[in-house]
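Thought: the user wants the 3D structure for the chain below. I'll pass the sequence to the structure tool as-is, report back what it returns, then summarize two notable features.
Action: structure_tool
Action Input:
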Amino acid sequence: MSNVHPFIRLTRYARNYRSQIWTATTCSILNKFFDLAPPVLIGAAIDLVLQKENFWANPLGVQGLPAQLFVLSAISGVIWGLESIFEYAYALQWRNLAQTVQHDLRLDTYQHLQELELAFFEERSSGGLMSILSDDVNQLERFLDGGANEVIQVTATVLLIGGAFFAITPNVAWLALSPMPFILWGSVWFQKFLAPRYAEVREKVGLLNGQLSNNIGGITTIKAFVTEDYERKRIEKESNRYRQSNRHAIAYSAAFVPLIRILIFIGFIAILYYGGLEVQAQRLSVGNYSVMVYLIQRLLWPLTRLGETLDQYQRAMASTNRILDLLDTPIAIHSGSKVLPASAQGEIQLKAVTFGYNLKFPIVENLSLEIAANKTTAIVGATGSGKSTLVKLLLRLYEIQSGNIFLDGIEIRDLELRSLRSVIGWVSQDVFLFHGSVLENIAYGSFDATAEQIVEAAQIAEAHEFIQSLPDGYDTIVGERGQKLSGGQRQRIAIARAVLRNPPILILDEATSAVDNETEAAIQKSLERITKNRTTIAIAHRLSTIRNADRIYVMESGKVVETGNHDQLVALNGIYTGLWNLQTGQTHET
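Observation:
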């Protein structure tokens, strides 16, 4: 976490909104100026009626009590009108600013989040990140919506009333305003005291949201294992932690207002007592005495609301810190500058590549292999041998620790990330479908595709027939993560999505792992069409699906241990032969 105060960090971020902030601030100050003007006119009216003092409008030719009272009334009307206009203006400006900042901040944070490497997401809960993007951004919005204006108006109130008091009677003013330094110092100290409490509150709500998100995502498992009561207790535990951290913060923040009232009371007594003595000694007019008594009350209530405003401010600053900490998270994988042509050949070379999710435990080590352009290359091996990791390294979802990966002779770190990933179609074994229609999911990433092209892609992927049998056909909503569809149906939609994209390089990561034998046979037939004249990388457990591959790499413990086509590898009587015999029930004679 940055040591810079969150308010300073926020002002750095908000530089683009400087003109809007100044406009909103000016409207707030002018509103408060006109809000405090009526008591001055009331004091003038009292002096005019009771003491028959000369009215400042006399030089303008206004003579007589009725005419002078009429002028005061007219001025009051103008002031009330201006106060209302600027109240509308500041509300409009601050609320629109709050909406703009929260909108831009959420988009900036989300965009930055998308650019972070996968390792970042593996170390954090999705619920915690959702809490930052939603709850924390909204917390800042709530403060800008009303709290910022409150702080400005309280400050303007202190300065305007303090100036008025010193203008009217300096010898009483310093007594009335003597509590102000203690109030301001106390406010600053108090907000520093509250800051870590509200940081803890934001942390606890992030943990609670993380648990809730995790449970909602795993609701099927919860129901299947009848753990509803257990999960409710876990949520209750996290919710209680959030409640307790909030209670501690509230206990301190609630004490602020009573303390402020005591200090304000000292100033009020000073005005009431010493101001009265000044009137008796005829050093202060009755009207000005009334103005001071009235204004000290106008000072009282804004300062008592300062506690609530500071509470809102601290919540917003705790949220701001979390948001800006996320924005300041360095991007580990940087884009290159070279762009691949749309007609990329797809020749891939890995030279002495080493990578591990944990630096001490490499998944692949000093790995070298070649994937020929427009050919089908298969990678097989036991679970954990590093097959799927290679795909993620090729897409630069992770950064290799050493070595080089070349695509068409260009080091992939020199390529623009979008250019690199745009020429690769990936069908993962863990298919993710978005909440939406079947058609929208097939067209994902190919948003300009026509309905005819989408249907054709579905037909190639052997998905068209089952899609037509769905309640609304291609308009059927698949549910979150595609939960309304079977694993095989989701897999075929994912294949259709890759087919529609028509990339030069196609990666099939266990593409038929979730389908039955009949569907697998149908998909295999379609894959023969899909992979023709295209660089294809097929990762498979089922060796029958890659039997016709041009080249097969057998991996073990992050290294290539066997290479060849199917017949050559079977003849080796090695690891591949053992896997083949195990899956087919055959034995091989040496």
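Final Answer: Structure generated. The chain has three domains: 6-327, 346-423+505-517+531-590, 434-502. The beta strands are 348-355, 364-371, 376-381, 402-407, 410-411, 424-427, 505-509, 535-540, 551-556, 559-564.
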